[in-house]
Each structure stands twice: as C-alpha cells, then as structure tokens.
Model the fold of this input.
Amino acid sequence: MLFIARTLLRALTAAQRTAPVLLRLISRPAGSGFQKIFVQRTQKISQTFRKCTRLPWEAGPSHRFAWRVPSDFRDKGPKEISEMAITNVVSTQSNFTNQIVHGNCIDVMRQMPANSVDFILTDPPYLVNYRDRSGRTIQNDVDDTWLKPAMAEAYRVLKQDRVAIMFYGWTRVDAFFNAWKDAGFQPVGHLVFRKTYTSKSRFLRYQHEQAFLLAKGRPPLPKQPLGDVIDMPYSGNKLHPTQKPVAALAPLIGSFSLPGELVLDPFAGSGSSCAAALLTGRRHIGIEMDDAYFQQARARMERVKVRIAVKRFSEIGQFDPTDHLQKDVWL
Ligand SMILES: C[S@@+](CC[C@H](N)C(=O)[O-])C[C@H]1O[C@@H](n2cnc3c(N)ncnc32)[C@H](O)[C@@H]1O
Done:
C-alpha cells in the first residue's frame, strides 16, 4: 500500500507537495469513487484505501489507479488524469532492522517503508576525492550524482516530525544544502565537532568537522538540548579512513531518539553510528556499499554485541537463590 504513496509522491513532487489528490481504483470501480487525500500524508493514503477498496493488500496484487488534482488546485498541479500501476505491496516494518546491509543506500532505502525510521545519523562522502596516507579511498567521493536521490530517500523513510543529523564537506556545502532543501528537510541547527588534533594544515589548521541538524516537519524540542560544539576525540581510523568516534555520536542518538527506536545510517562506513545506536539501546539499520567497509562494520557490530552481553553478565552477578529479583534472569 505504501507503494501507492511513494509513486504518488514521486509523480507529484515536481508539481506541488501539499496539493490534495483524488484517487480512484480503476480495476474495481464499483464502490470506489475518487477519494480526496493529501499526498504528504502517506499514512492517510494507506488508511483511506484500506477502508474504501477492501483489496487483499497482503497478497501483493497489481491494480490500476486513476489520480488527478482537484480543480481548485489545478493551476498548481498537473492537469491531466493519469494512471499508475501497483506492482508491489510493502509492509510498514523494515526487513533490515538491526542489520548492516551491503548495497547502494538509494536502492536499499527504496525497499524501506516511508516514515519508518525515528532518527538518521549519517556521514556521507564529502565529495573531496579523499585518499589517506595508506591509499584508502571512499566510494562516491568524486561526483555528486547520488546526493539528491539519496537525500530524497532519506527524507521519505524518516518519520514525520523527526530529525536527521548529516555530516558534510564544507567545500561542497552548496551541493549538500541544495540536496537537503530539495528533499524537503529544514535546517534547524548546525553542529561543530572540535577535534583534539589537526587533520590538515593549509590556510588554517583544520580542526573541526561539521554537520547539519535537519527537520522533517515540526519535531518536538529536546528537554535538555545539547550544545552545538561537541568534542571529537581521534578515532584512530583503524576500521575506516574517516571513522567517526562513537563517543561523539552516542549523545546525539540519546538526544534525538528513545531507547528501542530505529536509527538509520545510509552511509555506514565501519558502522560507528550503528555501534553507538546499539550501545545506547536503540535499533539500527546501517547501509554500506563498499565490500571491505561493510565487512568491517558487520564484524564490529558482532564485537559490540559480545561486549554488551559480557558487561550485562558481569552486572547481573552470580545466581543467588534468595534474591527473587534475579528469577527472571536465571530461572
Ligand atoms: C565518510 S564515510 C563514513 C564513515 C563512517 N562514519 C565511519 O565512522 O566509519 C562514507 C561511506 O559511505 C559509503 N558510501 C558511499 N556511497 C554510498 C552509497 N550510495 N550507498 C551506501 N554507502 C555509500 C562509502 O563507501 C563510505 O564508507
């Protein structure tokens, strides 16, 4: 059902995002007149259609719909009545939860339901053709053809009234900003990560990284907002040439999501933000296209899981038959 919403959104994005749309099921016209819905509200599209058509959605049929923009919005939207096919039905739960997925994040996010992620924390390529001293490089760090489609998908999968934090390369701030704005994100804050070292020395000694805090809709304010200058210790870059330290990421996850919520990193690298999500009790989805970094991230997540389990075990202590609070652990 969400496929309808996604197709509609794509079809109408260029025209006008907030125009209502009338939809009618062509393959079963009886009892299914045009329904007025707002294309921004994918949940509502789903509910409306469930009620009015009673189709076997779970079976994944292929049906045809007509859609048009009502007359009072015609000057702003497309004029003609168009048709589209439903070829796929996806559930509202992501199949990728608690995994590092190997692949191109644009393709992977397209398989994820809209509005399914609570927080995005990501560090995309900075578009600087980076190569470290040992010759390690980063895929997609040269051209920006992936940037707009990736940001559009990130926006789609993020829940309404939630935020994303995205690092970016300051030399290409224009490209990142355009991609975020085109996708629908509103910048609501800017973070500076102060390094304890100099990564490069030219006109200045370069000693910080940066990220934008981006809103989808109108997220609630955190009770105790973080400062926008955060200390960033050196990670050592052992697993990845631009590895971000978990210590700088974990507080962000703590501030913008709740335990058990789902954190997405579409450019996972060695999995630093997924490790931070795991350590703070959140669910995660990491996506990484480079085979070597994907392997690093997957192995790292296993190590983090073991460490968490060992720590819990040592905290629980020995079995004490007189301690009734331990019953649910040992018995
Ligand atoms: C700046 S690095 C992220 C490093 C990460 N923060 C860490 O701590 O390890 C960006 C990563 O995005 C990956 N990447 C680039 N384009 C991608 C795409 N379209 N889909 C998935 N991963 C991509 C690169 O291979 C690279 O590992």
Q: What stands out?
A: The chain has two domains: 2-86, 99-315.
